[in-house]
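Q: Convert this sequence to structure tokens.
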Amino acid sequence: MAKMRGAIVVDIERCKGCNLCTIACPLHLVTLSSTVNHKGYNYAEQTDWEKCNGCTSCAIVCPDGCITVYRKKEE
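A:
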């Protein structure tokens, strides 16, 4: 059976660090960065690239649409 892998891309300049995506991630793979964007906000980032299953929970709850999720089926 094929396994789904995922990766998120965050538009860091639009992210305002609301933390909703970190709460929504069922695998706890999204955290806020320790660095800030040009607006002064800590932005979201993916922590473990091997465990993401591409569920899109983080992208769904993002109020600014800053997160894009890419999914790939692995054999």
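The mean pLDDT is 94.
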